[in-house]
Each structure stands twice: as C-alpha cells, then as structure tokens.
Amino acid sequence: MASSTTASSQMGLGLGIGLGKAIGLGLLVPDDTTEERGREPEVARAVLRLTGAVQHYEWGRRGDEASLVARLAGDGGGRDGDGRPYAELWMGTHPSAPSSLAASGESLQEWLARRGPAVLLGRDVAARWGGDLPFLFKVLSVAKALSIQAHPDRELARALHALHPATYRDANHKPEMAVAVTEFRVLCGFVGVQELKDVLRTVPEVRELVGKEEAAKLMGAKEHDGGIGVRSYLQSAFTKLMTASKETVSEAVSKLKSRLNIESKVRTLTKKEQLVLSLEMQYPEDVGVLAAFFFNYVKLNPGEALYIGANEPHAYLSGECVECMATSDNVVRAGLTPKYRDVQTLCSMLTYKQNFPEILRGVPVQAHVTRYTPPSEEFEVDRCLLPPGESVTMSPVPGPSIFLVMTGEGKIEADSMLDEGKAKEGNVFFVPSHTEVRILGSGPGCMQLYRAGVNSRFFS
Predict the structure, then answer these.
(1) 151 labeled part of a ligand binding site
(2) Known catalytic residue: 333?
(3) Looking at domain 135-362, which CATH architecture does it have?
(4) 218 exposed, middle or buried (CB, 10 Å; 0-12, 13-18, 19+)?
(5) 363-458: what CATH class?
(6) Which of 165, 246, 404, 426 is the most buried (most CB within 10 A)?
(7) What's the mean pLDDT in 429-452?
C-alpha cells in the first residue's frame, strides 16, 4: 500500500477500470484478458477471501466471549463449550498452520504456486523470497504468560534447523512486531545498570542464585563504560541464574513468595514484585519468576507497538494484539513454559543490550490510516479506523497484502467483485501485488481493519 502518488501511478490500476468478470472460488477478478508470458488469462488482481488457522496453545484465552481469536475465527469457541484456549490466529503460508481459500479450501501456498508467485506476489518479492509470503500475520489472545524466549538470527536459525529440525522447523529468522489491540503487557530486553543493581540489593533470592562473585562484578560496573564489560558480567550472571538446579530455584522462588506476601502487609509492593507473584501462580517453582527481575516491564496501550529483533529476550504476559513477523516459527525458550527449554542456546545467543525498548505509535499515511514500519524488510502493518460512511483507498503496491477486519463492518471494493464485497468482523482477504482496494465503513460503529504487507522500504 504505497502512500506516494508515484507508486500509485506506476501501478496504473484504479477502481474504475471495469466491472470485470466473476469466476468462482470466491475470487474478485478484473476484466483484463491479457496474458503474462504465456500464462492463463490475467488473474493477478484477484482478491481472495481467506480462512486463517487457529492455534490452541495453553496460554490462550478461552471461549469466544473472552478470546478475540475465537471471535474472529467464528468457529464456535465458547459457544460450543469445548473449553479450549484460543491463543493465535495465523494468516499466511507457514506450513505449521497455513491459511486456505475460504471458498474452496485450497491452501494459499498452493494457490500462489499454481497461479504464479511473480504475478501474485510481485516480481521483486518472488525473486527475493520465492513462492511464499515473506511475512506471517497473527492475532494473539494472551491469558497466561508466554515463555521467556528469543528468536534466532538467520545464521543461528539455519544451524538450529540443521541440528534439531523437529524443534526448530524452519531455517528463517523471526523478527516480529506486536501492535496492541487491548492493553498489552510484555517483558522485553534487559533493565539498565542502575535497576539491575537495585535488584541485586533488594532481591536476596536473585542475589543468592547469581552468586557473590557475579553480583560484585555487576555492582561495581559503571553505567557509561561502553557496555562491553557490563554485558559480559550480565551474561555471566544471567546464565548462572538460568542454569541453577531445579531444587535451588524451587527453594529461592518459595522464599521470594513468602517474603513478598509478608512484606505486602506493611508496604505496597512494586509493580515488578506484583508481577512476579502473579507469574509464580501461573508457573510455580519456575526460574522465569526470578528472571523477570532482569527484564523491562512494558505496558502497551491500544495502538502502540513494540518491535523485537533477533536475539532479544522477551515474554508476552497478557492482553490481545496483532503480530507480524518474518515467516518463521523458531522460538528458543528457557522459562515460564512446559515446552522444551534450550537454556544454553538462549543464554549464549542474547545481545545483552540494556535499554528500555522503543514504543512505536505509528505514522499517519492518510486519513484514518496509521502505519507501523519496523527495521525488517519483510513486513509492515497498517491500522485503519474507519467511521461509518467514510471510505479509504489503499493504493496499489508491488507486493502482497493481507487484510483483517477486526471490528465493525463495511465493504471491500477492488477492480471486480464476485459478490457485494461485504466485510465484517473476522473476514480475512489476500490482496495480490499491484491491486488497489477501496474500503467503505458502514454500520453503527467504527470499522477497525489491519493490513500486513511487505515493508515499503523494500521497494524504494
């Protein structure tokens, strides 16, 4: 969705090209019968209705009343009384949970391969990333903390996939960005030197597991010494904490819980102390309860976003968000999880940077549309809040997009529509490259829509 008039004129596509011809499979097909290098008649502007894939991870919210994922998926959720958590809705081509065409059930990946990636994804995107979408789009409904984790860079991802393909299922890196839909709480990145010293002074349970020698090094560190020494000390101390024996960790967490419960009767606990008590209830005797003291505690308001690069520690805690990332499912875990923990890998891969993460608030690109542009070339996200009776035109771009209607209702218009193009909560659309889309809001409330696409900087 290029915001520049140059990009729009280069694509040469408008909404007034023609009424077009409707041809099955829920496609929206333009009236253009030219062929591209011997292919079947042009279908490159076909807008597809998609069905996303739901992931029922244990940390997800249960029931369609409580879970945005269940509500958007529209598959019964709590109405059917199955009691399952509805954690993530995936929209993309990753083989772990690929999207499919709503009308036929054919996977989006198969459709792209059959129709031609260069046509549907755009030549530059297909040349750079092959026949798959370079991004994976998700909605998360978080009731319980996710694991303390990090995502590998490309080099490490290739190595992990080669060594442990059952655990690390692809060879791609996984930078990601979360845009809060509700208040969204996160642990992300290491706290600064001063806060770290405060932890060692005031949390004896952490100090004991870190050990006197490592604690002394950190306590003597200077805040502005270039960071190299501090990072080395931090890595050593954090590794010692994370690799402590299960018995030692269990005893330390028990002491921490008992001490804070007693102290809460005579003073107000800090937000971090309140957090670790809630984490202990979710994951008793887990080293992640203690590790939380090492990380920045971030609260995102709706519309605020957080970008997490390779090898940065984080853990989503609660709330709901849309998330976009490079097409990968590689996660290195080390705490707050019943899943496989690869502690040594995580401790060795982290950057150990100490700074509070930047909160992204997006940049307006036109009326009603805000864009979040991360450093990664694979993706960007647009947030569209469209009042009833208003419309917005998403200009054609040389790459693919996925649109998700989060709330409200309206109409989607492209060059030609098989049906009336009605769009309501939970509808997902694949928009091929070089395709202009017009969105009209209707109904009593605001229409909230998100678009994921290839980062605009990739085309500049």
Answers:
(1) yes
(2) yes
(3) Orthogonal Bundle (1.10)
(4) buried
(5) mainly beta
(6) 404
(7) 93
